[in-house]
Structures are given as C-alpha cells and as structure tokens.
Design goal:
Blueprint (H helix, E strand, L loop, with lengths): L1 H24 L7 E2 L5 E2 L1 H17 L4 E4 L3 E3 L4 E9 L1 H5 L6 E8 L2 E9 L4 E6 L5 E2 L2 E2 L13 E4 L10 H11 L4 E3 L4 H9 L5 E4 L4 H13 L3 E3 L13 E4 L3 H10 L8 H5 L1
Parallel strand pairs: 3-5, 11-12, 11-13
Antiparallel strand pairs: 1-2, 3-4, 5-6, 6-7, 7-8, 8-9, 9-10, 13-15, 14-15
Helix pairs in contact: 1-2, 5-6
Length: 272
C-alpha cells in the first residue's frame, strides 16, 4: 500500500500542476461553465480529471474510477474516488483554497487518501490504520476539548442554498452564537484536513458527494477526529452528510444539532 500511496501522491501533484497553470493565468469568465445556477466547472477541472483517470488506468488498470465530472467508469471492488478540483468556485475567482482529492475505496471503505492543495503548498495523506501525514511529516493526535464557546468551527452550504436557505440558516445561527467563530472555505476535503491538523475544532455539512469526503474523512479519523452523520448515527460516505470534530467538541456540536426543546424538529432534521 505504501507504493500505491507514493504513486497517488505523484498523480495528485501532476494534477495540481495543471490547476496551478490556471491559477497563475487566471480564469476568464468565458472559461467558466455552469452545471447549475452556482455550480461551476472550468476547463481545468476537466483537464485535471482526464489526467488523473489516464494515470490511474495506466497504474491500476483493474480498478474502477468514480470522479466528479465523468461519473463512474468500470466496476470493481477497488474504486478510486476522485475530485479533480475541490473548490471550483474558489479556483474560478483566484482564491487559493482548492485541491485535488483522491481516495481508494475497497468494498466501499476508504483505505488510502491524498488531499493536495497546490496553491497553499499543503499535501495531506493517509493509509488506513496508519498515522496521517502533512507534507510528509506525521501529524499529532488531536487532543480532546469540550468548551464549545472556545471552538473555531467550519461549515459548508450545498448548491441548493439559493432555493433551500432554511436548510442552513438555523445551523449557522445556532453555532454563531455558541462558538468563538465560524469559517467557510468552500472545499470539503480541505475542511476535513484542517480539522485533522487541529487548526479548527469541528466541521459540519450536508448535500455532499463521496468524492468530497472520501480522502478527507479518512485523514481526519486517523488523526483522532470523530466522524458521524449529523444526528450521531454512523457516518455513511454516500449519504452526503458529515459531522466531524475533535473529541469533546463533537459531542457538544451533536447536542446543538439534535436538541429539540419544544419537541419539534431538530436542526439535524431541518438539514436533511
């Protein structure tokens, strides 16, 4: 598996160079396509994915690939789950929080993950059962904290936010008044990794895809983060929902999401 990881790191860096070409040049408005009202794609998403698919087919010809722009090709117990450009809106605006995310799923479970953010110079990696690494160095285990008022949290909003704002506004308000601060980067994979490093204490989002979460949740879990569904049930990579936080803070966030003072709908119910 170590040899596989080294190959995937090379592929992720190659894809990162493709993205950096666009980042350095800048993205003209006419280069941006709209998959939805606010769901963007650029030629660099497609070039990055094409390169990753070609390299995976060359190195692991028996494996299937599930990627954001092209869907799944092949059928196998081993599936490469790939986001060739996580944070496309950031990328299109020249904001450096974007990355390449790659994970190997074996029977649906992540066994290896790489998140490479070329403009930031950050590379996270992990093999299941081993310590995660940041830029090649082992990452420290996350310490437990339980004071939500001192926590810095990440959140995300799906592309449905323009038509379903209520799905997110209650959650934002609830944590805004209970924490030291909220942040949103626009890249789910990087949000997971920021939690893994302890730079933020927790992260919650819904309406995601497997390629957004596969690598990042593996890395965060290996660092000691607790990863569940937003109602505390076991995390399902294909549900699109994640609550991820350091020990202690996860329990406090879960209390907020599942509280029902008047017996009505919880925030977790609203966000589904």
């Amino acid at each position: 598996m170590q040899e596989t990881l080294e190959m995937v790191l090379r592929i992720a860096h190659e894809a990162g160079e493709i993205l950096m070409e666009g980042h350095r040049r800048g993205i003209a408005p006419e280069q941006v396509e709209h998959k939805g009202a606010i769901d963007l794609v650029t030629p660099y998403d497609r070039r990055s994915e094409a390169h990753v698919r070609a390299r995976l087919a060359e190195c692991f010809p028996q494996d299937a690939v599930l990627a954001e722009e092209g869907g799944q090709t092949g059928s196998a117990a081993r599936v490469w789950c790939v986001d060739p450009l996580d944070g496309t809106t950031n990328f299109a605006h020249g904001f450096p929080f974007f990355c390449v995310s790659m994970a190997l799923l074996v029977d649906g479970q992540p066994q290896l993950g790489v998140v490479h953010a070329p403009a930031l110079g950050w590379t996270f990696s992990c093999i299941a059962g081993q310590k995660p690494r940041f830029n090649g160095e082992e990452m420290a285990k996350l310490a437990s904290r339980d004071d939500l008022s001192q926590a810095l949290l990440m959140f995300g909003c799906g592309y449905d936010r323009t038509v379903r704002p209520q799905r997110y506004l209650g959650m934002i308000h609830a944590f805004m008044v209970r924490t030291q601060g909220l942040r949103r980067t626009g890249s789910a994979a990087l949000d997971c990794c920021l939690c893994a490093r302890g730079q933020v204490d927790g992260y919650v989002e819904v309406h995601l895809h497997p390629w957004d979460l596969a690598a990042g949740t593996l890395i965060a879990r290996a660092a000691g983060a607790i990863v569940t569904d937003i109602d505390g049930k076991p995390f399902d990579l294909f549900s699109g929902r994640v609550l991820l936080a350091r020990p202690g803070i996860h329990a406090r966030m879960l209390e907020v999401l599942t509280a029902s003072p008047s017996g009505g709908e919880t925030l977790a119910d609203t966000m589904r």
